[in-house]
């Protein structure tokens, strides 16, 4: 499985998706939005802060303590997080049906158990987060400031 880990790192080796990752993400977002994949995946649409265009990409929905969350596997310095901030947290979630949502940033102190659950559900994120998925929650606390998590709330 080392080759798979290396492949996933290669897709985002510069901190941004390469061409192959962009095509793969576009195809995944289409499939996830149609609702033909498991319920734990969806397509997230956020308005571009410069273009104003709705940009779609695939995400893993993380359920923890009865709430749904979205995590940035590449950290805070990625376009979708910056676009989300510019959009005031407003986004659209699609998995068979369209849902207007508001993504609310989770406090750093509360992220560790969410990050742990996210790694259990998202195999594609494991090479990007430097903690094993079966590590105790305490192991996620030092890295929690580096990986934004957002609670999914009803939109306006």
What keywords describe this structure?
Pnp Oxidase, Chain A, seven-stranded antiparallel sheet, 5 helices, single chain, alpha+beta, 156 residues, 7 strands
Describe the secondary structure blueprint for this structure.
Elements lengths: L1 H10 L7 H16 L6 E7 L6 E7 L1 E3 L2 E5 L7 H8 L3 E5 L3 E8 L6 H10 L15 H4 L8 E6 L2
Antiparallel strand pairs: 1-2, 1-5, 3-4, 4-7, 5-6, 6-7
The appropriate CATH architecture is Roll
- Total strand segments: 7
Q: Summarize model confidence as the mean pLDDT.
A: 88
Helix-and-strand structural type: alpha+beta
CA-based shape: globular
- Helicity level, as a percent range? 25-40%
Q: Can you identify the CATH superfamily?
A: Electron Transport, Fmn-binding Protein, Chain A
Q: Please name the CATH topology.
A: Pnp Oxidase, Chain A
């Amino acid at each position: 499985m080392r080759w798979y880990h290396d492949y996933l790192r290669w897709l985002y080796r510069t901190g941004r998706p390469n061409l192959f990752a962009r095509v793969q993400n576009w195809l995944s977002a289409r499939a996830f939005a149609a609702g033909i994949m498991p319920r734990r995946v969806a397509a997230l649409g956020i308005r571009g802060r410069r273009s104003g265009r709705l940009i779609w990409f695939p995400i893993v929905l993380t359920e923890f303590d009865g709430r749904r969350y979205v995590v940035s596997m590449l950290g805070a310095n990625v376009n979708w997080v910056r676009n989300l901030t510019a959009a005031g947290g407003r986004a659209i979630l699609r998995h068979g049906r369209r849902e207007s949502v508001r993504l609310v940033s989770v406090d750093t102190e509360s992220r560790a158990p969410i990050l742990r659950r996210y790694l259990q559900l998202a195999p594609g994120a494991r090479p990007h987060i430097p903690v094993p998925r079966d590590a105790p929650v305490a192991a996620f606390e030092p890295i929690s400031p580096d990986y934004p998590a957002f609670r999914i709330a009803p939109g306006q």
